[in-house]
Structure formats: structure tokens, C-alpha cells
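Repro:
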Amino acid sequence: MKGKRIQGEIQNLKPHIMRELQSLYDLSVPVGQLSTKELNERLIAVTEEIGREVAVYVDRKGRIIEISVGSTWTVDLPAVDARSEVRLSGVRCIHTHPSGDTELSEPDISSLRRLRFDAMAAIGRLAGESVGCLGFFTGEKEEDGTLEVQLFGPVRADHLNRIRLTPLIQSINKRLSRERTQATDDEEERAVLAGIDAPMTCAQWTTEDSLAELAELARTAGATVVGTFIQKKAKPDTALFLGRGKVEEMAMFIQNERATLVIFDDELTPSQQRNLEMALGVKILDRTALILDIFAQRARTAAGKLQVELAQMKYSLPRILGQGLVLSRLGGGIGTRGPGETKLEVDRRRIRRRIHDIEGEIVRLKKERLLHRERRRAARIPVAALVGYTNAGKSTLLNALTGADVFAEDKLFATLDPTTRSLRLADGREILVTDTVGFIQKLPHTLVQAFHATLEEVVEADLLLHVVDVSNEAAEFQIEAVTEVLKELGVAEKPMLYVLNKLDRLTNGAGGTGGGDAAAHVDQADDARHEAAGGDAADGFSRGEIPSLEEAPLPPAVLRLLRGREGCAISARTGAGLADLQEKIASCFRTGEVELTLHIPFTENAAVTRLHEAGRVLQTDYDERGTRVRVRLSEEEAARFRRYEIP
């Protein structure tokens, strides 16, 4: 049959073998029958000549839809495009065992479960006779939740062909439908992680560190990591990202561990993703897709959901290519579609149209946010934005400073939508503090672009509070990763305070040697103060209750990170150091300001109104001649009112 290819390890096969395999597509199997004597004999004959497994995939109409050649010990089992999580796939697999031992192996049974074949058969020649073994589901589940498999054989191959498959499949599907009482989303994903160990530009961040972070991302998304694969490689393979041998090793591991997806630590090209799905037979994600999945879970506001959808659409567009036969069917040319337009082209056009609609909606929301920011500017309320690596404790810090009740969790990307709360500093100044989405290493440029609306709060802020997890050994690298994103946003030169958080977690061997005693001293001093205050640090601190670090010696790790940087060390969880932080914030906003004492005659009372608009009035008194005002102003504004200044 023309147009169908032989899959698998075919590089060294002789032409006559290729012709024989290709001719198998012309065969058909009676509906409801497993196979035919001719098909079995020809498969076994090819296997005996080449010494490798050969597999054919047959649909319920008896058509051979794919043929694959494996190594001497296994054969690639491609994913079935239309497989259901509730019912059987509609495809059965018949493959040979070169040794003649036709008992189904563990990988065979794993593939049967994972791909939900109607049946899995192994055939071979033993003592000159064609024999085989059949595996199929009972419709029940094992104690561990996996589908129970019934084995029949080994028996003579012609005995297998007498089994009536149609009623068997119908019975299994009915039982599977009854068993399916929970939605797929409630089931736990079993993930395998993969990456390459290429020369790193930063010695602080190894491949192991990157994959450990990927495991945290997987955990945040709700997956359980069952294995990790690392391959030393100067650069990714253009076809499979990893080498073919490593991919084959992963395929066996996936079958044995019943993994449901593989997550790669770097961004995959559409062709790499497609090739890996064919080779491994499970869902393939890269770091970008995983982050987008987490964002989709975390988005709560309309703007956040739109930004996630936009990013997902832009990510998916180049990847909608040849995903099974369904995407290459021809349309009927009705309405706006051109004659013969493929479903693939229709899907792409719909995605582009949706992208255009979302971008228009985001522009509308952007105008609304601009109005809010203009009102804030008119009220002359300064804004501080919390930025930093994901899970550095930004939301916990916002809660501790302002008494807010923002969701905070020890997971990556717990925050997606920006949250703004007011904070009154010790000097009486009111400011706004905005919590923003965290950054991460290997953050794609397209992701930064898609979430530019969320990051506008960073762009428009007067002060950046760069929150750093000081207990993380890769803290310096995380600072650099955040700085790179800030440069991309064009805000790296904004006034910035480094807030070294999680001081309470700093112990010997974590984040620096010799820091444990100092951290313990801080914690003990803080606990005593806080118990006396009678409050819970997690609920936030009112002004005057926020503890200070006093004169506690700082650990070496903190001193290293603060070298050449303006900042302070705190624990947002316990509240230690928040008073020092507030003072530093106030000091930053006082920079460039002057305090004046003015006397404005009653005849020029309009100047008092302008003064309230231009600066922050600290004190107002009246005498028989006019109004006495103590005010803080920018140096530029102060020049307008100098003539009223009292010497």
C-alpha cells in the first residue's frame, strides 16, 4: 500500500525485506478475528531472517494501520492517536518474539496498559510450530489501581485466531466504563524528567540543580516524579534532543514504571516533541509547557487567565502539525474555508484568530490599569514592587508587612496575579506594595512578553524590593537570573533594595558555614519579643510591633550577598528584621526630598491647596497672619514654594 511507511529500526534492512514488510499493508484481517494464518507466517518468516521483533497494528475493521521493526529484544510501540482514558483504543498489537518464547514480557504488558490496546499478542515459532500468547484486560483493577490483565497461552497460533474478539472487547469496555468513577484530572501523573549535561556558563548551577528545580515544578503541577535521566552531551540532538540509545533506555523505563509523561528541562522544538512522542508513546512536555500548566492552575483574575491562554496559544501554534490522521482530513469547503482546506489549517486559523481577540482584550484591560495608575500618581502615593525568584517568600513578606491575606505556599509560582496593598511606614508615609509573579531560570523570552501586562507593576514601580531566599545555596545565581529578566523589562536601573529572606532557615551547611548560631540567636530574640507582643507573625504586624534584628551578628552567607548591594536580612515568617526593612524603604523614598517649614498668608490660601497636591504635609498650624506648614517635597517642587520658607 503506497503512502504508508515502515517505522522503527529499518536502516540496515535489505530491499527485499522492506518490500515484504510494505506488502503486509495489503493484507486484511476478518472483523472480530485476532489475525490470520498468512499474516502470522509472514511475520515470523521476516523475524527469522532479520533476527528482530516485528509488530503490526490492526484496527477493528481489520486494516493494518502501522508496521514497526524493533531491535533484537524490543520494538517501538507508537502511541495510538485516538486512545481514550475510559475505553479501549480500538487497535490491537501483534508482534513477534525471535526466540520463540511467546510469553508476554513486562514491557509488553506495560504497553498494553499504557496504550489501552484491544489486545496484545506475541507470536513465534517453537519446535517448528507457530505458537502465540494473548493478553487482554478483564475490566477490573489490581490492588495498586492498575488494570488487571488476563493472559491466554502459549497455545498454537491458529487457536488464538478462533477467539471472538468483538464480544470480548464490548464486555471489557462496559466494565471499564463502570470502573471509571473519577475524572482524569483527579488522577496522579507519573513523570520522568530528562535533561542534558552540557557545559554550564555558571558553576553555581549544575544540571542536577536544574533538574531538582524541574522536579519541584512537577510537584507544584501535581505530578509524581518516578525517574530522572541525564545524558552528557555538548548540544541537543536535532531529532530527539537526547541520543537514540538514551531514548530507548527511557522507553523501557517508562513501560516498567507506568509513567504517563516525560518532562524535558529545556525547550523542545516542535519536531523534537513530535519525534519523542512517537518514540516514547507518552505525553511530552518541556519546561515552558510545564510552567504554563502551573500558571493555568494559579490564574485567578480575568487578566491572568487571558495572559495564560495567550501564552499557551502562542506556544501551541507551531506544534499543531501532523498529530495523527484526524488533523489531515480534508474539509468540505463550506463557508469561509477554501476548497480542500485541511483541518490542520482550520485549527491554525482559529488559534490565530483567538490570539488576535485575546491581545485586543488585554489592550483594553491595560487601559483600565493605566487609569488606576494615573489616579495613584495624582495622589502621589509611591509604589514598591516585590520582585525575585519564585518561592523566595514575596507573598509571605507582603502579608507580614501589610497584614494582607494573600495566598502563600511553599511551592513554585504560588503567585501569578499581582496583588497591591497599602503600607504605612514608621515616618507616617503611606506607600503601596505590589506582589508580582516570581521569575525562574530558563524563562523563555516569549513568556516574558506574554506576561508583560502582569509585569507592568514592576515597570511602573518607584522602588524594587528584590526578595532573595538566603537559605538557598544557589542564591547568587537566582539573583543573576532575576536581574536578567529585569534587564529585559528595562527596569534594572531602578532604585532597588535587596531583601534577604528566610533567615530563620539558615543553619550550618545551608547557605554558608557558620551561620547557624547567628540565625538561632535572631530567632530566639525574635520569639521572645513576639511572644511578649502576643501575636502571630504569619498574620502580619502592625506598626510598632514589627521586630528588629537589633545587633545580632549576620551569617557569612548574608554578608557575602549584601557585599556591594543595598539591603537587609529578614525572616518574613517570624517577622525578624521587618522594622529595619521598613526604615530602609522609608529612607529610599526620602532620597531626593527636602523638608521645609513654610508660612503662607491667608491671602494666598490657594498655595496651601497646591502644597497638598505637590508633597506630603507633615504638620499644619495657624496664626493671625496665615498658615504654618511643615512639608516634605521633591527638590523640583520645593523650588516653587521657597519664597514661603521660614528662615
